[in-house]
């Protein structure tokens, strides 16, 4: 279950873990320290790194840095829209073996450009990017997991290869 630490009671992570629920941090405006506290209590996933949360700033490092330091799994939408390829590469370098590719896919995933219903909205897909109405807000993604893997393996988001020490 994804929660925003700044809106959760201090014991929310503990209660969920006691109920055998895996806890994620996401959809949050949490500070670095708020996110770090949730990870220290046992949250083990960062939902959709860089999306729906503050990015990395040198004076306010935010939830992504807290997750990288906490050695938890960091989910990333590697569609080149939600997160730039250079940032995806940085994430792989900062958290080797702990990055999980996710899609945030909507029903239009893999479909042609056009208009699609999503909840009470009409989503317009153009050039594979799903947006809601006049605001232009992203409406999930049309990414499929096989395409995410191909993008990462194809080099634009390639994780740095680890060199063996001799």
Automatic annotation (TrEMBL):
Lineage: Bacteria, Bacillati, Actinomycetota, Actinomycetes, Micrococcales
InterPro entries given in the database record: Metal_Hydrolase (IPR032466)
A GO term, aspect molecular function: N-acetylglucosamine-6-phosphate deacetylase activity
Annotated keywords: Hydrolase
Protein family (similarity comment): Belongs to the metallo-dependent hydrolases superfamily. NagA family.
Species: uncultured Sanguibacter sp
GO terms of biological process kind: N-acetylglucosamine catabolic process
Protein name per UniProt: CAZy families CE9 protein
Entries under PANTHER family matching the protein: N-ACETYLGLUCOSAMINE-6-PHOSPHATE DEACETYLASE
């Amino acid at each position: 279950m994804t929660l925003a630490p700044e809106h959760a009671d201090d014991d929310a992570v503990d209660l969920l873990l006691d109920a055998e629920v895996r806890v994620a941090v996401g959809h949050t405006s949490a500070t670095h320290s708020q996110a770090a506290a949730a990870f220290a209590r046992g949250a083990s996933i960062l939902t959709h790194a860089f999306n729906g949360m503050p990015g990395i700033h040198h004076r306010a490092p935010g939830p992504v840095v807290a997750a990288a330091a906490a050695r938890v799994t960091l989910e990333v939408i590697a569609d080149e829209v939600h997160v730039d390829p250079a940032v995806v590469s940085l994430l792989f370098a900062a958290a080797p073996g702990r990055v999980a590719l996710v899609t945030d896919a909507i029903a239009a995933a893999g479909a042609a450009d056009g208009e699609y219903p999503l909840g009470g909205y009409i989503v317009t897909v153009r050039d594979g990017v799903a947006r809601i109405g006049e605001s232009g807000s992203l409406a999930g993604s049309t990414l499929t997991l096989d395409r995410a893997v191909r993008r990462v393996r194809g080099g634009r988001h390639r994780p740095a290869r680890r060199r063996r020490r001799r």
